[in-house]
């Protein structure tokens, strides 16, 4: 019992924000994680960690600008789903937003590559474990 209490106290939640950008044909943008990063080569939704003092929405707008070179307004990102997954010593809470409008053309500024994929085709991509439950949700939502 004491051990269980200690384990709970030491567990650190790791919030990460990500966006499913949807284009006019109902496809979702995914990007491939670069070499040297954890889970290199896997396809993910653009996004990342929160900086100290940042709201999830501000972090997502910043990450989309840094990673894709696009500008997104707070009104354009809709909180939609989350995933919860053990990630090494921490526990990932992946907060997924939908976004259908932005300005600029997405470019792979951080990732190896970006691609636009129909939600049903996400099943065929190698994605992080946390993302897998989100695919079926996106198929129904988009
Ligand atoms: N962006 C993103 N991260 C994901 C997804 N699924 C998933 O498990 N993750 C994990 C991978 C990483 O452990 C973590 C995101 O951290 P990161 O290191 O990529 O964040 P970052 O962009 O702030 O990276 P950095 O600049 O600090 O290198 O979340 C996803 O769909 N999108």
Automatic annotation (TrEMBL):
Catalytic activity of the protein: 8-oxo-GTP + H2O = 8-oxo-GMP + diphosphate + H(+); 8-oxo-dGTP + H2O = 8-oxo-dGMP + diphosphate + H(+)
GO BP annotation list: DNA repair; DNA replication
Keyword DNA repair recorded: yes
Cofactor(s) listed: Mg(2+)
Record domain Nudix hydrolase: where: 12-139
This protein's record includes keyword Signal: no
EC number assigned by the record: 3.6.1.55
PROSITE patterns: NUDIX (PS51462), NUDIX_BOX (PS00893)
Keywords tagged on the record: DNA damage, DNA repair, DNA replication, Hydrolase, Magnesium, Metal-binding, Mutator protein
InterPro entries: MutT-like (IPR047127), Nudix_hydrolase (IPR020476), NUDIX_hydrolase-like_dom_sf (IPR015797), NUDIX_hydrolase_CS (IPR020084), NUDIX_hydrolase_dom (IPR000086)
Domain of life: Bacteria
Record-linked SUPFAM superfamilies: Nudix
A Pfam family this chain is assigned to: NUDIX
A GO MF term: metal ion binding
Family: Belongs to the Nudix hydrolase family.
This protein's name: 8-oxo-dGTP diphosphatase
Lineage: Bacteria, Pseudomonadati, Pseudomonadota, Alphaproteobacteria, Sphingomonadales
